Amino acid sequence: MNISENAVVLFHYILTDENGVQLDSSTDTTPLAYVHGHKNIIPGLEKAMEGKTEGDTMKVTVPAADAYGEYQDHLVQEVPRKAFQGVEDMQTGMRFEAQTESGPVSVVVRDFTEETVTVDGNHPLAGKDLTFDVNIQTVREATEEELAHGHVHGPEGHQH
Ligand code: ZN
User: Which domain holds residue 62?
Assistant: First the structure.
């Protein structure tokens, strides 16, 4: 069958950035499984999968806006060092969960002084155009239970 809404798709991928640097890959592990049309994967990739079928391969470059979004300067903020009480060994690159009005956000420490810490709430892949080498393994109808949950069950998906 061809990929359309409510298809369960298993695919292998190699993800590279604009410079051809490999960021991620499924080829050493199990394929990625998702339910098509349920925003399980980034919008630009989901759109490119539409109509494809088992055995198809493709290389698709998804602009940042259709991947993890543009890099947003306002998500970089300076906060008082005292908000990090209990953190004795502050280092750039450390990740924290920040509580915001719209729920918890993962932030990374970009810089810090005695008084302040500069944190960045952008997704690590925000602002990047992403290229996916895709190899579609299987395409099947989702079960009613999978549709109710919005994710794939079985060996490649959730076991519950
Ligand atoms: Zn489930």
Answer: 7-68+126-149
Instruction: Indicate whether 108 belongs to any domain.
Output: yes
Residue 24 in tokens: 């991620």
pTM: 0.81
Alpha carbon of 29 to ligand 1 centroid (Å): 21
Q: Is 86 found in the same domain as 60?
A: no
Q: Output the CA 91–ligand 1 centroid distance in Å.
A: 38
CATH code of residue 130: 3.10.50.40
Centre of ligand 1 to C-alpha 6, Å, is 14
Instruction: State in Å: Cα 9 to ligand 1 middle.
Output: 16
* pLDDT per residue as tens digits for the range 50-94: 999 999 999 999 999 999 999 999 999 999 999 998 898 999 999
C-alpha of residue 11 to centroid of ligand 1, in Å: 19
Q: How far is the CA of 157 from the centre of ligand 1 (A)?
A: 8
- Domain CATH number, residue 79: 2.40.10.330
Please give the residue that has the higher pLDDT: either 158 or 17.
Answer: 17
Domains in the chain, number: 2
